[in-house]
Write a structure and sequence with these properties.
Layout lengths: L1 H31 L8 E5 L4 E5 L6 H7 L2 H7 L20 E4 L5 E4 L3 E2 L7 E2 L8 E6 L6 E6 L5 E6 L9 E4 L4 E4 L4
Antiparallel strand pairs: 1-2, 3-4, 3-11, 5-6, 6-10, 7-8, 8-9, 9-10
Bound molecules: fe (iii) ion (FE).
Fe (iii) ion binds next to loops.
Length: 185
């Protein structure tokens, strides 16, 4: 009786081990499989003059490091801030569109740019609310609202409620997070 119990027990144990091994192998396979397709997002395109469907841009930290300049990487991927008055777009007045330096998504129009006197390129509105993401940022012991690119989640800057009327908003951006294009739409 004892022997039969022992044999049954060991069979049961080896059976369980087998199942666990199979589960482990299945997990391993799932991990090796390509990531499931990311749902496309609806964003505004200045070139098309309307909304388009676009794939989110997802890259590893190493890939971003290779693609971006050290300054762009520090700001877009590590939420850095360039020194006031140091960016190339602070006093930039050409007509066109400011795109994301990480993924090229249209973000702001020159028509909505104004001189806030802060030393950072400032806008009263994004090109479309759908092209950006805003979220609370409670770092540095203050309550701010962070602005990110909708397509690549790159950090762009912050939005404050001390902008000019009638909108009253100041999108305070880092020049290094932007790429100007002289298209007019
Ligand atoms: Fe982007």
């Amino acid at each position: 009786m004892k022997l039969r119990t022992a044999v049954f027990g060991s069979l049961l144990l080896s059976g369980m081990a087998g199942i666990m091994l199979l589960l482990h192998a299945a997990n391993g396979l799932a991990g090796a499989a390509p990531a499931a397709a990311v749902a496309a997002i609806r964003v505004y395109s200045a070139e098309k003059g309307g909304y388009i469907m676009s794939e989110p841009v997802v890259r590893t930290d190493q890939e971003w490091k290779k693609l971006l300049t050290p300054e762009q990487y520090k700001i877009l991927r590590k939420k850095g801030t360039e020194r006031a008055y140091s960016g190339i777009y602070d006093k930039h007045h050409e007509q066109g569109v400011y795109r994301c330096a990480g993924c090229g998504l249209d973000l702001f129009r020159s028509e909505d740019k104004y001189d806030s006197g802060t030393g950072w390129p400032s806008f009263t509105a994004p090109i479309s609310a759908e092209n950006i993401i805003t979220r609370p940022d409670n770092s540095l012991f203050t309550k701010r609202t962070e602005v990110l690119c909708r397509r690549c989640s790159g950090h762009l800057g912050h939005v404050f409620d001390d902008g000019p009327k009638p909108r009253g908003l100041r999108y305070c951006m880092n020049s290094a997070a932007l790429q100007f294009s002289a298209i007019r739409k």
